[in-house]
Amino acid sequence: MDTRLPTSSDDSMLSAEDKEKTIPAALLSRLPQYYICLKDLVNRDIMRVSSRELSKALDITDSQVRQDFARIGDYGRQGYGYSVRELIIGVSDILGITDEFSAVIIGANVLGLAIASDSLFSRHGVLLKGIFNFDGTLVGQRVGNTKVYPLDELIPFIVKEKVDIAVLTTTEGYDPSELIDNGSLRGIWNFTNRFIERGEKTLVHNVSLGDSLMTLCCKIKRLKEGR
Global pTM? Predict the structure, then answer.
């Protein structure tokens, strides 16, 4: 089965940029979960889904599902549910999955190599162009199809290759502030313990694994207590 994403030809729809301006942060945080769920349905050749089925998969209410999709487009028909094809077009458009972004990883440590070895980037339409390491370890070698470069080549590489995203897995031997508003870089995906503030042109998503773990523990506790 061909599971490539379809493209939309409806010129009357809002652009992804216009949609994003009207979407609350809470909904934006749910869109990747919707995308993963919808891709799974496509892979199982399921082309129609109800709000109740989606709500169970995402652990939210079915009314929240209906509100979310009403917010991003004209989806769903009474007695029919949702077209998975139409939903995945709309959600992937807002998420920028069809925009062909590019990325580099900074840090050939355990986390960096794990991310590079996974199909995470290709599955979400992002091209991984390089891995950079501060101490020379693995420089010149390849992790999958991606070459490891010395850290001092990072900024020239970002500018030359017009890289959109830097994935930061370590700050050892490196000051990440050099990445802010530098060249073509649009965003930093930060997995380190150091909080990084965004710039005028560079967005920063600080990922706290500790916060995620505590959130999970809290949910488990509430489930055990019947809340």
Answer: 0.69
Contacts of 97 (CB under 8 A, 6+ apart): 5, 35, 124, 125
- State the number of CA atoms in the 13 A half-sphere of 164 facing the CB: 10
In angstroms and rounded to an integer, the radius of gyration of the C-alpha atoms of the chain is: 20
Number of neighbours of residue 101 by Cβ within 10 angstroms: 17
Give the chain's domains with CATH numbers: 16-95 (1.10.10.10), 101-210 (3.40.50.720)
Beta strand pairing call for 126-133 and 101-106 = parallel
CA nearest to 91, candidates 44, 18, 10, 32: 32
pLDDT string in tens for the chain (227-residue length)? 333 444 333 433 444 444 444 788 888 888 888 988 998 898 899 999 999 999 998 889 999 999 999 888 888 776 678 999 889 888 888 887 767 889 999 999 999 999 999 888 887 888 999 999 988 889 999 998 899 999 999 999 999 999 999 999 988 877 888 899 877 899 999 999 888 999 998 999 998 888 888 888 988 888 888 76
**Angstrom distance (rounded) from CA 87 to CA 34:** 9
CB 202 within 8 A of CB 141: no
Going by C-alpha positions, the residue among 52, 53, 55, 90 that lies closest to residue 70 is 90
